[in-house]
Amino acid sequence: MLKYLLEKEFKQLMRNPFMPKLIMFFPLMAMLLFPWAATMTIKNVNIAIVDNSHSTVSQQLTEKIISTGYFKPASFPNSYDKALESVTYGKADVILEIPSDFEENLTKTGVSSIMISANSVDGTKGSLASSYLVSIVSDFATSIQESRSATIQSSMIDIKPYFKFNPGMDYKVFMIPALIVMLLTIICGFLPSLNIVSEKEVGTIEQINVTPISKLMFIAGKLIPYWIIGIIVISIAFAVAYFVYGLAPAGDILSVYLLSFIYILVVSDIGLIISNYSSTMQQAMFVMFFFILILILMSGLFTPVGSMPDWAQWIARFNPLKYFIIIMRSIYLKGSRLSDLLPEIYALLGFFAVFTTWAIASYRKRT
Amino acid sequence: MVSVSVENIKKSYNKTRALRGVSFEVSQGELFGIIGADGAGKSTIFRILTTLILPDSGRAAVEGYDVVSEYVKIREIVGYMPGRFSLYQDLSVEENLKFFATLFNTSVNENYDMIKDIYSYLKPFKSRKAGALSGGMKQKLALCCALIHRPKVLFLDEPTTGVDPVSRKDFWAMLKRLKEEGIAILVSTPYMDEAALCDRIALIDGGMFLRTDTPENIVKNFRREIISVSSSDMHSLLKDLRTIDQAQNCYSFGETHHVIFSEGVNYCDLSQIADYLSQRGHNDIEIKRIEPTIEDCYMLLEGGRHLNKYDK
Q: Rounded CA gap, A57 and A71, in Å?
């Protein structure tokens, strides 16, 4: 019986002129575009440099800043107020003000101060840009110090961070596993959420409900097709990650697949539950959209769960996406084995048990 | 043998009272028609008997199984054709049939004799998608799918609505043959001319059965004076007919108007009516004394309730 249910679902899917294309192209396009957009490396920050010193040293500093490639000189206003104006008009993101006694102080006492102001309307950009600038300036300061007193050994502590598991701190490496999770959530969440409710809209559910078919069989017949679609989707995503970004899982690919199998079922269950409670496709679509938004924003995909307020962390605890992102990042970047991820695996299995039961129970053959 | 028994079933949707206490029985091998206007409660009866919805009160049983507690058993023995075409439009004729056979744990071959006559019409289109069939073909396919598991009771909710007259005729001929197999058939229809083809009918209006009897008896119990009238100005004729004292119901019926007289009027004087109408400026007046049809009975029993509704 299940075989025929599946046969029917696949026939319907393949005869739909749009679905097979969606399943192939959506992961492909998403994997090719999103990693570039979802980067946290800041480039081309517009900087306004107010050079009151007009000295050789200040010139050197300016050149050094621009030569890094992170900053683009937007303007060289002659006062701080003018610089602020260019920030107001959106022409500059950061202001660097060099005081008029910059060189004098530096040569006399070896100490001078400068001012960095960043536009924080875009918080991430502002804070990252100012911290870049600070590190460039301090780098510059060290080099001056060294040239001035070559005899005196610098006793400063030089901190060189080493980013373990992602040495270049390449955001693409960090984001790709999480993006694969997002992709799976969207495709394997939305499609089932529209499935049962579309049978309700067309009226075919009426004909199904008078047959002796069991709830379990019906839900299984709905769940398994998305499972297979999910496997196709992640396979495409893994291939793009490897061939385009050269990113292969540090751990075992089989364990990635194995855990994806469970995760796909969990999100498809959520979709089916919503579909069961909805009476129109429009309603199902919006409810699913709402939940997927919450799942993604509270998953640690963009912002670490640890820095959320306590109540938000509590909500994240009930977010299957959070666990699967941890799993994917760990296996992909750290090379974790299944035994290292037991708490997350148990959590996923728990979600699977609860949501599948719920999906079966919420499908009502009579009202 | 009683196949379907319904006792004082009531059902409301929020504040709308769809069924206000309906009772009837259908025997095996009987073709039972539920006749009524749209919104009279026909579909609700079918949905309760096919275990899709629960009644608020009352009892109903299909082949001895209670619709509330033994619904699992009922689903194995009933065939249901909903009012709206509910097969998969994107599957072919053959695939739909095979799919529903499988859901009932049987196969097309096993019960082919059951649908052979009907399927012979469909065979030339067996690989066509159900959505691309004509109305009459869709209806035949739906009947095949409802019969494929050899049901003991068949529920057909407005099977001929939106179907051409030839297909409708074919369809009723098929039902006659199925009846001979001993299947109890419940069919609802808004077409009064189909009522005469049933063994027994129930006239339903406003969630209540007005009368349940054989079509012949219903006509026989009409016992009223009824005439058909036509003139050159049909529109004002209807208004003028309603001014006649003893005319209880006046309504248009095809190309003429029918007038049912109040109780006690035994044999009215046709020439007197003709005079009255010509005084009011009507020409080419034709008045005939006629035999009542089921539709006339329905009009009398529902008391012009829905006619008045439209006149307002």
A: 19
User: Which stretches in chain A have pLDDT values below 70?
Assistant: 38-41, 148-161, 163, 165-169
Q: Which residues of B touch A209 (CB under 8 A)?
A: 52
CA distance A240 to A246: 8
Out of A1, A8, A204, name the one closest to residue B86 (CB).
Answer: A204
> What is residue B312's predicted lDDT score, i.e. its pLDDT?
35
How far, in Å, CA of B157 to CA of B159, rounded? 6
Overall average pLDDT of the B195-218 stretch = 91
Mutate to test the interface with B, among A199, A206, A210 (most CBs of B within 10 A): A210
In a 13 Å sphere around the CA of A296, the CA atoms on its Cβ side amount to 16
pLDDT at A184: 92
pLDDT of residue A69: 78
Nearest CA distance, A206 vs chain B (angstrom): 7
Global pTM reads 0.81
Domains of chain B: 2-219 (3.40.50.300), 223-291 (3.30.70.2070)
User: Which residue of chain B comes nearest to A200, CA vs CA?
Assistant: B86
Superfamily of domain A45-148: abc type-2 transporter like domain (3.40.1710.10)
Q: Is A164 on the interface with B (CB under 8 A)?
A: no
pLDDT value of residue B102: 92
Taking phi over 0 as left and psi of -120 to 50 as alpha, with beta for the rest, B39 belongs to: left
CA A272, CA B205: separation in Å to the nearest integer? 39
Among B35, B18, B24, CA closest to B191 = B35
Between chains, do B100 and A207 touch, taking CB under 8 Å as contact? yes
Instruction: Of A178, A53, A165, give the one whose Cα is nearest residue A103.
Output: A53
Tokens at B139, concatenated: 């209806």
Nearest Cα neighbor of A272 from A364, A352, A194 is A194
Closest residue of chain B to A205, computed from CA coordinates: B86
Rounded to a whole number, what is the distance in Å from the CA of A216 to chain B's nearest CA? 13
d(CA B278, CA B270): 12
Q: B27: which strand partners? A: B2
B308: pLDDT strictly greater than 60: no
Specify whether the CB–CB gap between B88 and B130 falls below 8 A.
yes
Q: What percent of chain B has pLDDT over 90?
A: 51
Q: What is the full DSSP assignment across A208-274?
A: HHTS---HHHHHHHHHHHHHHHHHHHHHHHHHHHHHTT----SS-HHHHHHHHHHHHHHHHHHHHHH
State the pLDDT at residue A143: 79
Q: Could you tell me where in chain A the CATH 3.40.1710.10 domains are found?
A: 45-148
| Residue with the larger pLDDT of the pair A148 and B229 | B229
Of B173, B166, B163, B165, which is closest to residue B142 (Cα–Cα)? B163
The answer to whether A298 touches A316, Cβ cutoff 8 Å, is: yes
B281 in the Ramachandran plot: left (φ > 0), alpha (ψ -120 to 50) or beta? left
Which chain A positions have a beta carbon within 8 Å of B99's beta carbon? 4, 8
